[in-house]
Amino acid sequence: MFEAVKNSEKQFRNLVNGEWITSMNHQFIDIFSPLDQRLLGRIPAMTTTEVDGVIKAAKEAQKQWKLTPVSERATILNKVADLLLEKVEEIAYLMMLEIGKDRKSASAEITRTADFIRFTADSGKNISGESISGDRFPGFKSNKVSVVTREPLGVVLAISPFNYPINLAASKIAPALVIGNSVVLKPATQGSLSGLYLARIFQMAGVPAGVLNTVTGKGSEIGDYITTHKGIDFINFTGSTDIGRHISKLTEMVPLLMELGGKDAAIVLEDADLEKTADQIVAGAYAYSGQRCTAVKRIIVMEPVADILVSKLKEKISQLKVGNPLEHESLDVVPLIDERAADFVTELIEDAKLKGANLVIGGARKGNLIEPTLFDKVTVDMRLAWEEPFGPVVPVIRVKSKEEAIAIANASEYGLQSSVFTENINDAFYIANQLEVGTVQVNNKTERGPDHFPFLGVKASGIGTQGIRYSIESMSRPKATIINLQR
Ligand code: NAP
Ligand code: G3H
Prior knowledge:
It comes from Sporanaerobium hydrogeniformans. It is built from 14 helices and 26 strands. By secondary structure, it is of the alpha/beta class.
């Protein structure tokens, strides 16, 4: 099934207008495994001329695709979900090698994606317009009726990050397709192989030629060209705030949906159930080594319960499974995606040590594998209090009042999610109402999902709202046809 995606020399191809195409100028990028540096494959570094061809194909194919009945589009998506589940082991193995995710978590990502796609197919069929009578507005009569339908936008450029190469690609592609857009997928370079397998599955399920296409190449080289291309009607981007900001400065008059970085705070009040709180925080902070936008990235705790919480966290962190996914089916902490990522986390650790934070546990590094690390008594002059490590290191910041907790939480440039741990619903709402984030979790770790909930970041964490129905709506627009009845 995946033979079309690559040749025997591990040269991968791109899906363009229904064909698997190799590099025109024979330029390839080597993809190595972060687990043992083995060469996994070579992806084409596409030229600007090739990108022109991709977007032209997507534009042309969309004209027919938007006329395809939504029930047929939904049937194809359901087939995608079936095929994903059939191929779960093969794809999970590839993901493990390519992005270092343990096999159990990789399989869970694929299963969740199949569920996401089925839900999207159903939601697509249930998206409806409305008719609005003119007489609701002063001075108008009911002979004027606006018939409002939803129209696709055209060609959606989907740019996905390395950490969820299947889920965060499919969660852009499926909602875009079900409402009648065509898609150009630009996967993260480290994550491209998984992205190309995913594209193959969409093709096998019956997505017509040109409706889904792929572009591979380094974002730093091809990114500006593709994001400013006149043929792109919408950009759905997930990645770092730096790149998101860069794209939003560069583009004009193109709507954007952006899921960016985060520094999610877990706020722990004096009356919280500290045992359950510690379980939630540890699971939220260290899964996939903290390489998740929604990972708990700082703990803000009331001083009187800080010692007990920290000792519970320490005990639970010491029980985390740490290692190489090549040797274990299920792990919490795995090697980071590359050396640069590990170097960055090391810098934050060194800065915290230098400025006097208490190292509670961890801190050691072997290659790109960094032990799960916790610092206590982190202060606001330390980088760890503000920067997103995207690695397994978490600061504990002690506070004296709810107001101080809220102030520190809101002082971050980010605004993705926060958690509040308390037994008092009034306190939970008091704090939740003041937090400048897209979502507040009460007595739960920060996390995306269930995937039909709205998911959004404010401030530097994003633009627009994801979540199945919200994503479909974001990638479509109302079209009003006004009937003026003669009376
Ligand atoms: P990244 O380095 O920003 O890359 C994201 C994507 O952007 C990749 O496909 C990358 O391609 C591409 N890109 C790079 N430069 C570009 C340019 N000039 N124009 C267009 N595209 C360009 O992020 P990452 O390291 O993959 O992911 C980690 C970051 O994503 C973290 O900050 C995390 O918080 C964030 N994230 C946020 C969410 C959310 O829902 N809020 C979810 C997941 C991740 P190349 O790989 O070829 O450079
Ligand atoms: O990395 C960002 C993902 O959207 C996080 O999803 O909370 O299910 O791990 P998650």
